[in-house]
Design a protein that fits this description.
The protein is α/β, with parallel strands linked by helices and 379 residues long. The chain has 16 helices and nine strands. The structure holds adenosine-5'-diphosphate (ADP).
Length: 379
């Protein structure tokens, strides 16, 4: 509420949010101070007097006079007080306002911090960041939408080129190879529908998936979108997850194969282990060591062409991969085991081993960073 007020009453200048821990002596309880400071219109003295009182004031003229429901600050005050805190403000008409509140907090114990980190890490796993490089053409005239899309695409490490209308989109599509085109429907000069029809008519470009970005999703509008050959649509305002998923769904199967799964799958871990303490404190450190040893002995066995040893080593490390949740690694090692048992040419095994090694490096890096977080890293 403090932030939305600051935004509402500040036309120019800045809004600053500061959160800091208050220095206290050891006997006192720690406090956190939140402050929202703006350079907006400020509040004149008359108004200042009644600011937090609206909740108890039944006079409807106040709400009429100042706009809004007039309840926000009163509710904020109640909430802060329920947390045994205190809220106040400083303001000068024409210069700006600062609203701040102070709440006592209990310092978390080490166990509490650790359990939060566990939870955080587990929820991290549900959001897969695909490791693939894509080149995306974005035709969108609205600057705000442009910057949001830019943020999202570069956040995924994807390349993009921005153009402002359908005509520019056609030129760009001719000049470069794109994996996907994001096409705003309503644009000046040439709209997205016409541009799509023309791009789909270009022999070399007809297969590029085109995703409509559209604010109106009535049946009639969507019919037009698909009629001109667009492959999907994303309603505005754009949701990041929807943008990502739609793009990944539409890229060619060749490119899709490049989308690598996250190296550790916590869902796989949970199939075997409930106790996350055990996972981080025991299973992971042991697995890291086993995996390192396995890599060097496996390398030797392959050099010697010792099939029996290769199969045995693969077989031994396999359960660890599953327990650790290293799903891709488990697939690789299973393949090596199978090839060795079938006495397949050593070059073939060597090839899969290279993939296995690269994946193992990823897994090790990932796990070592994680176990460091969980305080079990040993130098
Ligand atoms: P509402 O915004 O719904 O009216 P609030 O209780 O949050 O309810 O705010 C009451 C009034 O206090 C606002 O209408 C405005 O006049 C004034 N006010 C609150 N915050 C600010 C601010 N940052 N700058 C200027 N005026 C403010």
């Amino acid at each position: 509420n403090l932030l939305s007020n600051a935004l509402k009453f500040t036309e120019k200048g800045t809004i600053q949010v500061i959160v800091k821990r208050e220095q206290v002596n050891a006997t006192e309880q720690e406090k956190v101070v939140f402050s929202v400071k703006d350079t907006g219109v400020g509040i004149d003295e008359e108004k200042q007097k009644i600011l937090f009182k609206k909740f108890s004031q039944a006079d409807p003229t106040i709400a009429r006079k100042f706009g809004g429901t007039g309840l926000g600050l009163a509710i904020s005050k109640r909430l802060v007080e329920m947390m045994n805190g205190h809220i106040d403000f400083k303001s000068e008409a024409g210069k700006g306002s600062e609203f701040f509140f102070r709440v006592p907090v209990k310092r978390a114990t080490d166990e509490e911090i650790q359990s939060c980190e566990l939870e955080k890490n587990e929820s991290d796993e549900t959001e897969e960041i695909p490791e693939i490089s894509l080149n995306i053409l974005v035709a969108e005239d609205n600057q705000v939408n442009q910057s949001i899309i830019k943020e999202v695409l570069s956040g995924f490490g994807w390349n993009y080129q921005l153009v402002n209308n359908g005509k520019e989109a056609i030129e760009a599509a001719k000049d470069d190879d794109f994996d996907v085109i994001l096409m705003d429907v309503m644009m000046p000069v040439m709209d997205g529908l016409e541009a799509t029809e023309l791009i789909k008519a270009l022999p070399e470009k007809s297969k590029i998936p085109i995703i409509a970005l559209t604010a109106s999703v009535t049946e009639a509008d969507l019919q037009k979108v698909f009629q001109v050959g667009m492959d999907a649509y994303i309603p505005k305002p754009i949701k990041i997850i929807e943008l990502k998923n739609t793009i990944l769904k539409l890229i060619s199967p060749d490119r899709q194969r490049e989308v690598r799964r996250k190296c550790i799958d916590m869902k796989e871990v949970k199939k075997h282990i409930d106790d996350m303490e055990l996972y981080y404190q025991t299973i992971i450190p042991v697995f890291i060591e086993d995996l390192r040893n396995n890599l060097s002995t496996m390398e030797e066995a392959i050099q010697e062409g010792n099939y029996e040893e290769i199969a045995a080593l693969s077989h031994a490390i396999k359960p660890g991969c599953h327990y650790a949740g290293a799903v891709v690694l488990a697939q690789r090692i299973e393949k090596i085991e199978m090839l060795a048992k079938m006495n397949q040419p050593i070059e073939k095994i060597q090839l899969i081993f290279e993939e296995y090694k690269a994946e193992a490096e990823r897994v090790l890096k990932f796990l070592e960073e994680r176990s460091y977080i969980h305080g079990t890293k040993k130098e």
